[in-house]
Please model this.
Amino acid sequence: MILCKTISDLTRVLNAKKASNQTIGFVPTMGALHAGHLSLVKQAKLKSDCVVCSIFVNPTQFNQESDLKNYPITIENDLKLLAESNCDVVFVPTISEVYPDGLKKSQAAVLGSITMMFEGAYRPGHFDGVHTILKRLFDIVKPNLVYFGQKDFQQCLLVKKLIAYYSLSIEFFMGEIVRESDGLAMSSRNVRLTAEERKVATEIFKALSIIKQNWHKNTAANLIAIARKQLEMHPLIKIEYLNCVDSDNLLETVDKENVVCLIAVNCGAIRLIDNVLLP
Ligand code: PAF
Model:
């Protein structure tokens, strides 16, 4: 595995790969890698000649200073896991390499209304930062294929919009959510849960499963009410949103097809998101 810390190093390595007609599959990450990230690397490996993974904790997408400060950094372990997963190139740039003109963000709103809902509404500025970093990374790596996890479903929609908006020739792939054995969606933030919060966090997937299992037996409104009630029994859980919406545009729908159920909760001090595709 080749480690590149600068854009010029990465460009030199990737130009050589592209000159021999190799396709580039790209998995952008913020590190603290878990099985969800590694499954994206494995999927990228199946479809591309060269897999590039970036590790960069992007300051512009954190709407809370404390979240950025507490974001887990496990670079040595990340490099080991990527090498074991046969990643070909890892890009670990500094902040000044990525943002030579300072931490300026471009507006995500140009990508459409999906950027203003749910995560966009609860984390002001978050998608501006995601838009900025992904446009920058796509310009640097110039990948043929990109891989993102379904756990950040709204981010996946943003990436599709970004590719279309800038007319990039990039194929988008969404990898399924990888879960712990008790159903909790894998997330780099899970390590920050206390033992008690970690136990209660399993209620999130239980609530989503109630909705999925009964999707054709009840109305969405009733199912959401049942799931809410179950979650609200746990004082550590504070729901931010729990909605079943159209999976293309995130708008309210009465349809039973092409729906996604999105949830965000604060579990103690840690904010967790999850979703299921319906039916
Ligand atoms: O999903 C993430 O880890 C980040 O939002 C991403 C896509 C790497 C951009 O910083």
Residues 28-30, 58, 61, 130, 133-134, 152, 155 surround pantoate (CB under 6 Å). The beta strands are 2-4, 24-29, 50-55, 89-91, 145-149, 171-175, 237-246, 259-267, 270-278. The domain at 2-175 is CATH 3.40.50.620 (Rossmann fold). The first strand starts at residue 2 and ends at 4.
